[in-house]
UniProtKB/TrEMBL annotation, chain A:
Keyword set, alphabetical order: ATP-binding, Cell membrane, Membrane, Nucleotide-binding, Transport
Organism: Cytobacillus horneckiae
Annotated ABC transporter domain residues: 10-261
Biological processes per GO annotation: peptide transport
Family under the similarity heading: Belongs to the ABC transporter superfamily.
The keyword Transit peptide is assigned to this record: no
GO molecular function: ATP binding; ATP hydrolysis activity
Primary subcellular site in the record, as a coarse category: membrane
Location(s) in or outside the cell: Cell membrane
Membrane topology reported for the UniProt record: Peripheral membrane protein
Annotated Gene Ontology cellular component terms: plasma membrane
Name of this protein: ABC transporter ATP-binding protein
Keyword Metal-binding attributed: no
UniProtKB/TrEMBL annotation, chain B:
Protein name: ABC transporter permease
Family: Belongs to the binding-protein-dependent transport system permease family.
Membrane topology reported for the UniProt record: Multi-pass membrane protein
Keyword Cytoplasm on entry: no
UniProt xrefs under PROSITE patterns: ABC_TM1
GO terms for biological process, alphabetical: transmembrane transport
Gene Ontology CC terms: plasma membrane
SUPFAM superfamilies: MetI-like
Protein origin, superkingdom: Bacteria
């Protein structure tokens, strides 16, 4: 478990990103720490609004400024802090060293440009190839992501392609310049179940083939089990548990993680993997609880949970958990305060 | 695409029938006896009756209508009462071209300034430049043509003496009428471009472009503007149409001998064939321009289902 800095392609330290709205500050990401090892896959899971997308957009500095802003923290990519980079330096990194795939294949492609052009554009920008060579490479990319008759497809517009095909085009765009890190924000949520499996398979195979590191955001614990080496569980802008994928499923430690796992439908039930089965709801981002943010919904919550925020601490088996239960303090505490269950 | 163009041209046929029918009926239903007027003030009842017979006004209405479109199709719109020359000659000798020239320059100005203002506004949302441009646009929209025209003449022609007061012929003559005509359009296009651009810049594919490492300028012009222009094109087409209407007032203010002034003068002189012919030509021009706009909209907007 003792990794040197060189093994980490990305290390996010105490990242804080806020939106400044008319009603006040929304701390969308509030002190997130995580890291990705070279060639490995990190999964980020959590309920809607927990700050997963904002974390990934912050890494690439794609927030809609000035409303959204990185307030503090570091994003160390290959030893350099991306937060300190100039706009121009960031442009050279985006799509070249770090790429991103978004959730909505229907709206993430430009409707007025051909698919080929949208792939070729980033090849021209980053690899300084001429139009013809960039186009040829774009066609190669389409072939790589398994699109039949790529020459023809390259000349088509996104509306002429199905959702699954479009997501393949997105993948082709993101991998065109052979990035070291790929961030996929719910890449399959909007697709049919069978297509989902194909797209995940494709990402997995290409990752292996190209040696790309991957950060995958998902609602689906099945995807986590399938794809990831490490998992970060997020709740209200904070990482509450960070562990090996095996440990998350066999020995989850944070009450929220346990709740998530229990809310996964059994195989014989024909329900979507809805994570909202944990009683209660996500707190209002303007009025976050003072202590542990999960306290209002936590069956184990005690006095200390309501007043003091737990830290992300390493436990006996190397996993990191943000919960008082796993501290020495816990035994000294009185009874649970919540009356759930 | 070729098929679409052909079909779109065929679609204008019912519109044309409607237009000719409307113009024809309008002339027949408005008060005033064409035969009486054409026969002259001192004509006796027999002469009027003779005139009515000559004009075919005693025939059934549908026969008259078919004769009207039959003649119109061969370019015969009758003779002007005022000048006795053929209406088509009166229109196409010079007046038509003057108005078209005026409308094109007015539209060009409207598009140029409207787009520039809209893009500046959208990319600097809520800045001083944005707010001032939108206030100016609001003024531009609410100013009546005749008032704006008179103010421009007062400032640039009378006070500063830079431009001629009225008339037509040189490019100096065109400036003020074109500005007068184009201002409202520029204001509409600016507002439309701004809102369309703001909507587009919020789209997921703009974020995708940034995520690829595309620079700000290229994102705005290549990824943003191209999409934002799609709804603007329709407005430009409608603008051209209302410009023809605006030409009536503007040509009168600037004493430009175009179609607009021809209509006014002909109405004053009860010159029925002339009014009828001019309105028909304007209507056809409007239909043609709209068809062209529709086709270019289609070329821009590849998303519209081809069926
Ligand atoms: N433009 C914005 N203005 C204000 N608040 C925002 C904005 N974008 C996001 N937020 C807030 O940031 C928080 C985190 O949002 P984020 O999109 O990262 O959630 P998420 O975990 O990706 O959820 P989902 O699973 O629904 O995608 C939310 O509470 C949201 O209210
Ligand atoms: S800190 Fe307390 S409230 Fe928070 S998860 Fe742990 S036990 Fe529950
Ligand atoms: Mg999200």
């Amino acid at each position: 478990m003792n990794l040197t800095k060189e093994d980490k392609i990305l290390e996010v330290k105490n990242l804080c990103t806020s939106f400044f709205t008319d009603e006040g500050e929304v701390k969308a990401v509030d002190g997130v720490d995580l890291s990705i090892e070279k060639g490995k896959t990190l999964g980020i899971v959590g309920e809607s609004g927990s700050g997963k997308s904002i974390t990934s957009l912050s890494i690439l500095r794609l927030l809609q400024e000035p409303a959204g802003r990185i307030k503090e923290g570091e994003v160390i990519f290959k030893g350099e802090d991306l937060v300190k980079k100039t706009k121009k330096q960031m442009r050279e990194i985006r799509g070249n060293n770090i790429s991103m795939i978004f959730q909505e294949p229907m709206t993430s492609l430009n409707p007025t440009l051909t698919c080929g052009e949208q792939i070729a554009e980033s090849i021209r920008i980053h690899q300084k190839l001429n139009k013809k060579k960039a186009w040829a490479k774009a066609v190669d990319m389409l072939k790589l992501v398994g699109i039949p008759s790529p020459e023809k497809r390259a000349k088509q517009y996104p509306f002429e392609l199905s959702g699954g095909m479009r997501q393949r085009v997105m993948i082709a765009i993101s991998l065109a310049c052979n990035p070291e890190l790929l961030i996929a924000d719910e890449p399959t949520t909007a697709l049919d179940v069978t297509i989902q499996a194909q797209i995940l398979e494709l990402i997995k195979n290409l990752q292996k083939e190209l040696g790309t590191s991957l950060m995958i955001i998902t609602h689906d614990l099945g995807v986590v089990a399938e794809m990831c080496d490490k998992v970060a569980v997020m709740y209200c802008g904070k990482v509450v548990e960070y562990a090996d994928v095996k440990t998350i499923f066999t020995n989850p430690k944070h009450p929220y993680t346990i709740g998530l796992l229990n809310s996964v439908p059994k195989h014989d039930e024909d329900v979507e993997g809805d994570l909202s089965i944990i009683p209660g709801s996500v707190p209002n981002p303007f009025h976050l609880p003072e202590g542990c943010r999960f306290a209002p919904r936590c069956p184990h919550a005690k006095e200390i949970c309501l007043t003091k925020l737990p830290h992300l601490e390493e436990t006996f088996d190397g996993d990191k958990v943000r919960c008082w239960i796993h501290s020495e303090e816990w035994e000294k505490q009185g009874k649970a305060v919540n009356a759930h269950e | 695409m070729f098929l679409y163009i052909v079909r779109r041209i065929f679609q204008t046929i019912p519109v044309m029938i409607g237009v000719t029918l409307a113009v024809f009926l309008m002339m027949h239903l408005i008060p005033g006896d064409a035969a009486k007027i054409m026969a002259g003030e001192n004509a006796n009842p027999e002469q009027v009756e003779q005139m009515r017979e000559n004009l075919g006004l005693n025939d059934p209405l549908y026969e008259q209508y078919f004769r009207f479109i039959g003649n119109a199709a061969t370019g015969d719109l009758g003779n002007s009462i005022r000048t006795s020359r053929p209406v088509t000659q009166e229109i196409f000798d010079s007046r038509f071209w003057i108005t078209v020239q005026l409308a094109i320059i007015g539209t060009a100005l409207a598009v140029l300034f409207g787009l520039i203002a809209g893009i500046i506004s959208a990319t600097r949302k809520y800045s001083f430049a944005d707010v001032s441009l939108m206030v100016i646009a609001l003024f531009g929209l609410s100013m009546p043509n005749f008032w704006l025209g008179i103010m421009l003449i007062y400032l640039f022609s009378v006070n500063l003496g830079w431009l001629p007061v009225a008339g037509w012929g040189t490019w100096e003559h065109m400036i003020l009428p074109a500005i007068t005509l184009g201002t409202a359009g520029a204001a509409i296009i600016a507002r439309m471009t701004r809102s369309s651009m703001l909507e587009v810049l919020d789209q997921d594919y703009i974020r995708t472009a940034y995520a690829k490492g595309v620079g700000d300028k290229l994102v705005i012009y290549k990824h943003g503007l191209r999409n934002a222009l799609i709804p603007v094109v329709t407005v430009v087409g409608l603008q051209f149409g209302s410009l023809l209407g605006g030409a009536v007032v503007t040509e009168t203010v600037f004493a430009v001998n175009g179609l607009g002034r021809l209509i006014i003068d002909s109405i004053r002189a009860h010159d029925f064939p002339m009014v009828q012919g001019t309105i028909l030509v304007c209507a056809v021009l409007f239909v043609v321009v709209n068809t062209i706009v529709d086709i270019s909209y289609r070329l821009l907007n590849k998303r519209v289902d081809l069926n």
